[in-house]
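ugh ok fine here u go
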Amino acid sequence: MFEYISGDLAADLVNAGGQLSDYAHLLEWARGAGAITASTAESLERLAQAKPAAAAAALRAAHRVRDIVHDVYTAVVAGRTPDPTDLNAELSRVLPRRQLDGSHWVWRDAERELESPIWPVVLAAGDLLTSPDAARLRICAKPDCGWLFVDRSRNGFRRWCSMADCGTREKSRRRAAKQSASVARRAP
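structure:
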């Protein structure tokens, strides 16, 4: 159902778009993206069933984060300086949840907080924006797609979110248009 092709956790959340129609879909997306573990997903699923109103609020928070990331990332792609106010507010909210557990980072109480699937997304957005890869952020060149991705190709000329999908379709469309134009020029 979900595709994780952007090379960035936060862009993958944006690309999930309308597929995040309920909390169960958010958990499915987060588990597939590696934002949460299977055991955390199971704990959160039980908690969401026990607290449906809180799960709905967590889903709204995920949509809010998705919109914030979309706005910031598309500003970067357009060559504008993004307004970091909303993203900074989210970072201030989630960073205190991060702690060391021996020799690695963990999210404190992730299995008991319904919003925890979006915590790594917020961190990923901040990390991308402060890295050299921010300059490699792109929007798919297929006119009706709009998916975000990080172009980590060797030459930096990746144009489509997925060559197997949008790239192939767009190249086929262009080839067909070119052939139609060639036939029309040859017609008497």
